[in-house]
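Quick question, first post here. What does this chain look like in 3D?
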Amino acid sequence: MKKIAILGSTGSIGTQTLEIVRENPDLEVVGLAAGANIDLFERQVREFQPKLVSLQSEAACRELRTRLADMQVAVVCGMDGLIQIAEMEESQVLVTAIVGMIGIRPTIAAIQKGKDIALANKETLVTAGHIIIPLAKERGVSILPVDSEHSAIFQSLQGENRERVSRLLITASGGPFRGKTREQLETVRLEDALHHPNWSMGNKITIDSATLVNKGLEVMEAKWLFGVDLDQIQVVVHPQSIIHSMVEYVDGGIMAQLGMPDMKLPIQYALFYPDRRPMKGERVDFYALGSITFERPDMETFTGLKLAMRAAGEGGSVPTVFNAANEKAVSLFLNKKIRFLQIAEIIEMCMDAHKRIEAPNVEEILASEQETYELIATKF
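> Answer (accepted):
Ran it through. Tokens below.
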């Protein structure tokens, strides 16, 4: 029996993780944490019977305690609650599926307690990779990527000598606006941006896919996960989303991981690694597919990716500012306060205004995040 805890159980990755638990009776959920979706969270707690659960606000926790008065479950709250779940003695694997830099402290806490991490929270490595990766090595902890692209790279590295890696080729669908000009992007609507051609994801990551910011975050994450230099990572637009990423070796050979665009595959692979378990679902029909294509990403139109590469190159606290500015800008766009192209404009404004810190600690990372939020608040 493998025992897991999940941070972000009501989001897209969290709910799909629980679908895998339903289909695999040798997985047990011992801890669950969510944000504010109390109705869904209550149903999850009643179904999976965890020992410890957490919600973000005190008010939500009070209501949940009342609702769950008939159950033997402890309800904790806020950041302290996330950390308590991350450190649970019973848990072997922590699934970090929450969005944002709120995931940094619980991830560090879990690593310090020797828990393996099934990582779906991009921000943890984007902003604190210089802290997380050395700590994981020191504690002998595995960081198992859940993101489809990083899982594909991880799978393509199995049985190979990592010293012989030449390039990582991270694929991108191109999002819903692939091929559009900046003039056309001036008038796109929120509803258009939320309509991804291939993947079913949460709203924030769907917008990140539309701006190509998501691919920039993946580049930063891959640098830390796989210990490669930035110039060894290339983004390739692949509209069909069948090849999830590739690894090129020094002899020119390329290993790729293919499959249908279904997040349950990388989630399950992370939970049972190195085993492969049967999984229901659609399979690739190469006859129906016919062909697959590749393109160079248009970084002049989708400047979010260009800014991400700049942030990755500058390093230090700059990726934190990039990430925080994007989080806030996407929130403004989702609330119809700004236009689509203003997302990248806000990111660039914040990066230009920031005074870089070489190797920020957690407090400095969070302070840089707050400063970025405050700068945006003065403008929008």
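The mean pLDDT is 96.
Residues 122-139 form the longest helix (18 residues).
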